[in-house]
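Hi Y.,

Following your request, here is the sequence exactly as I used it, all 226 residues.
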Amino acid sequence: MENFFLKLSIMLVPALMAITCHEVSHGFVADKFGDNTARYMGRLTLNPLKHLDIFGTLMIFIVGIGWAKPVPVNFNNLRHPKRDMIWVAAAGPITNFILAAVSALALRVLATLTYDGSSMPAVQSVVEPVALMLGFSVYINLLLAIFNLIPMPPLDGGRVTAGLLPYRQSEAFSRLEPYGMIIIIALVFFTDIFSYVLLPILSAGIHLLAGPQSSLVFSVTKLLMR
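Below is the corresponding structure, written out as tokens. Let me know if you'd prefer a different format.
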């Protein structure tokens, strides 16, 4: 039980921020392009309670990836539905990439300022939990961004792909959406796509962003996921 609450204290804030900002960014961009559905339904807020999906949040602590309630977007309200759909869909992963980069930069700065052995124990007792939270933030934001870019509807990558394809091919591709999550679950749990495709991309992203602090990101992730 003590181990659970330790994990919870490290994972909760980065996870909620990652999934909340991801969803809000979809609604914000849609609002700018003519669809105010998310604003009308009170979803353009950083209050995580407005976006929380209980099962999706629990999955973050169980398997390391989860989801929030999707922000409602009526693509027919967009000024240029096919083109604007690309930007609305891409907004979520782009936001997660930005959060991962900011977290990695903060982690590097924190290491430079405090991990030189000269900090007082009281300072280190505050810095270490913050560093662990930043390390998990790098991981969860990169994972959400990369996973959501899988080119399969209803994931963001699928919507981006549909927006880029010519109309006829786009319509045919979009028909996969009712079966998309079944296909994605089958790929993730019954194939090696995570080990051989997603994990190497995730690892490369962590090394690129965190640099010398990559080992901390990997170690905190390993600690939290076991």
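The chain has a mean pLDDT of 88.

Thanks again,
Q.
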